[in-house]
Amino acid sequence: MGNRRRSIPLTMLSMMGQGEICAMRRQMGARLREVRQAGCMTQDEVAYHLLVDRSRISRIETGAASPTFDELAQIASLF
């Protein structure tokens, strides 16, 4: 597993409007925050396990960034 980030395929994104993509990111981020808080974890702890900066977790939770497939897999195995 390299450092290359895989994200949502462009064909899927091209079928969605920008508003739908933003809404999807916000919903995904809100769910991550819910699960993280239910597990009594901080953003720092999640970032440590994913080998990313805390700011990356914050950006995902606020919908400012989309998680990569690798990050999603790591989050799923963490919780």
Give the key terms.
79 residues, mainly alpha, globular, 67% helix
Kindly describe this structure.
The protein has 79 residues and is mainly α. It has helices at residues 10-14, 18-38, 43-50, 54-62, 69-78. The longest helix is centred in the middle third of the chain and has 21 residues, at 18-38. It is globular and about 35 Å long. The two termini are 21 Å apart.
Radius of gyration, whole Å: 13 Å
Structural class by helix and strand composition: mainly alpha
Order of helices and strands: HHHHH
Q: Fraction of residues in helices?
A: 55-70%
Total strands: 0
| Total helical segments | 5
**Which spans have pLDDT < 50 for at least 5 consecutive residues?**
none
What does the overall shape look like?
globular
